[in-house]
Specification:
Layout: H1 6-22, H2 25-53, H3 56-62, H4 65-73, H5 78-90, H6 96-125, H7 137-146, H8 149-154, H9 156-180, H10 187-204, H11 209-221, H12 228-259, H13 262-268
Helix pairs in contact: 1-5, 2-3, 2-4, 2-6, 2-7, 2-11, 3-10, 4-10, 5-6, 5-9, 5-12, 6-11, 7-11, 9-10, 9-12, 11-12
């Protein structure tokens, strides 16, 4: 049997969070840097396919390959860490400042990697600017505007509330996708478990901070009338906040308290190998 029982999934998630906290900062940043390229490539693939066919669900079906590769390679998404690392702190395995250190290094990697991936992928897409109307360019521009200007035009309360709630719901699914990678011991089982919630979030158009580290700069580089202030204030910052709330409370704590018993927590206090059962993202 390759299936892992829910209580054991929680155990693996806690151990995975602890392992991340013990990794060197530069390594967390590097993993975060590399991960954005995979998410960016998957996003661009989904946008190109959707624009070429007019069938949005095809893009949603293809998009999860990015996160799947991130998890299987052991690379990192801070959105996944939002759901895992605080659980290790709750059990006294790490400190709160260890959580902040993990988040900070990963976000640094995402920020630099997102800009690099956006430049590389859009440069190739447009033939270094010689094909400005290539399939996918308008899709990137539209996404960048939808993720910033649309919220801005909705107003301070409505716009920020809208984007933040979308981010909460998004990372409920994304963090569960990362946690679900612990639900099987086989590669095929892990892939299927990750694919389902990630397909759902993308199809629903929810806001994911790491994807947006690529998508919005890529749209701006492709001609979207979006300023850096629009990007940061009307998307990136509130989306990180919403993703943290959704990943930590709804995904992490929800599963933890639904499955973790007092006996489990007591047994965990005598744990041995923090790397056991841990994966990427």
């Amino acid at each position: 049997m390759t299936a892992v029982a829910p209580p054991d999934i929680v155990t693996a998630a806690v151990e995975g969070g602890e392992k991340k906290a013990h990794a060197p900062g530069w390594q967390l940043a590097l993993r975060g840097f590399l991960a954005v390229y995979l998410l960016g490539a998957a996003t661009l693939l989904a946008v190109v396919v959707t624009e070429a066919t007019g069938v949005a669900i095809l893009g949603a079906v293809l998009f999860p390959l990015g996160l799947t590769l991130v998890v299987l390679l052991g690379w990192e998404l801070v959105t996944g860490a939002y759901g895992l690392v605080p659980l290790a702190a709750m059990e006294g395995r790490i400190r709160v400042r260890d959580c902040l250190r993990v988040f900070g290094w990963m976000i640094l990697g995402h920020a630099v990697g997102g800009l690099a991936a956006a430049w590389m992928l859009t440069s190739v897409l447009t033939g270094m600017g010689t094909e400005p109307d290539a399939t996918g360019v308008q899709g990137l521009v539209d996404l960048a505007v939808e993720k910033t200007v649309d919220y801005k035009e909705a107003g301070l309360i409505t716009g920020l509330g809208w984007v933040t709630l979308s981010a909460v719901l998004c990372n409920w699914l994304v963090a569960l996708g990362v946690i679900m990678s612990f639900s099987s011991t086989s590669t095929s089982g892990k892939i299927l478990a990750i694919w389902l919630p990630i397909l759902t979030f993308y199809a629903l158009g929810y806001e994911h901070a790491v994807v947006n580290h690529f998508t919005i700069p890529a749209g701006m580089m492709s001609g979207a009338d979006v300023s850096i202030a629009d990007w940061l204030l009307w998307n990136q910052i509130p989306v990180h906040i919403g993703n943290f709330v959704g990943g930590f409370t709804l995904a992490g704590l929800g599963l933890y308290f639904a499955q973790r018993t007092r006996v489990d927590r007591s047994a965990a206090s005598g744990h041995t190998d923090p790397a056991a059962g841990a994966g990427g993202a």
